[in-house]
Amino acid sequence: MKRCGAPVDLSFKAISNFAGRSLNLRLNYFSLFSHSEFSLFDSVSVLCELPELRVLYLHGNRIFTLSGVDKLGVLPHLHTITLHGNIIESRKAYRTHVILALPGLKTMDFSAVTPQERTLAHLWQHSTTNTLH
């Protein structure tokens, strides 16, 4: 994997969000896990300004909503994400939702996203969309 800029690992640091901060736009690896007060919702706009981001570790935080994950879909090279250990993990269809939100995802929570899983996610999306109309 070609690296663009040094990887950033802020795991176990006292950070609640990145609102109003700037990061290296060439960053492609970012680790921020085990933060009891981290807010993806407040920080997602900064993370979305990292077009080269490929790996994002956010496990073990207190991420409550999937809406922040949806916004990460603008990152064209994001292929690996960890979100386990967050409150969103208990949401219905959590893994399916993340797979649909991040189309380039190859690995989620240290498990490969298989072609069959992606197909089932799209079928699930289609069936839930049809039942709503």
Characterization of the model:
Residues 10-17 have low confidence and may be disordered. With 133 residues, this protein is of the alpha/beta class. The longest helix is centred in the last third of the chain and has 18 residues, at 115-132. The chain has a 6-stranded mixed β-sheet, with helices on one face. The chain contains 4 helices and 6 strands, in the order E-E-H-E-H-E-H-E-E-H. It has a single domain (8-132), classed as Alpha-Beta Horseshoe (Leucine-rich repeat, LRR (right-handed beta-alpha superhelix)). The chain has helices at 40-47, 67-71, 94-101, 115-132, and strands spanning 8-9, 29-31, 55-57, 80-82, 107-108, 111-112. Strand 5 and strand 6 form a beta hairpin.
Could you tell me the strand content as a percent range? 5-15%
Q: Structural class given helices, strands, pairing?
A: alpha/beta
Determine the CATH topology. Answer: Leucine-rich repeat, LRR (right-handed beta-alpha superhelix)
Strand order of the largest sheet: 1-2-3-4-5-6
